[in-house]
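By convention, each integer encodes one residue's backbone shape. The lines below illustrate.
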Amino acid sequence: MRNEKLYIARREQRLKQKDLAKKLRMSLDSYYRKEKGKADFTQTEMMRLAKIFNCTLDDLFWEETN
């Protein structure tokens, strides 16, 4: 399942997948698979993404539960 929060954050910042792949020092294919939910981001990658978007890990990766 696609990481919808990350997708939205990326689009709001007008970034392309290749831009984030470069910032995370990974291939475009690897980033694509991770954003699409076919592979998992490492803890370090998640922390870098939160820093890039100036938000928390919760904001990008976890759903709120009621």
